[in-house]
Amino acid sequence: MKIPETQPGVVIAVRPLADTKLASISNTLNKTPNVEVIRKVLPVGKVLSEHKSPGESIGERLGGGIAFATIGSPKKLQEGGMLFLATGEAHAFEALEDSSFLLKIMRPEASQ
Fold it and tell me: Hey, which of 30, 42, 58, 79 would disulfide with 37, CB 3.0 to 4.6 Å?
């Protein structure tokens, strides 16, 4: 799938979605063999069950409220908060309110 935003030098808007969250959808903003950036949009109550990270990952809250369960305890991301996960780290999350966040997955092994 060709993603227009994946071209070097193209500016991608990642600001909080505010009142447009429910009209927005999750989408991949950038995907290369080494990195993938996804904007996840979740309605309140949406739960993504436990799964494992395919690479080192960073979740960054853009808006709303999100609770992550990882490394043995729940963690709530505050506005502007980030969470780092190691490759293969099991985690799950739940939208505590209509929410959006960036998920960045690094796959350095793809370049070897």
Answer: 30
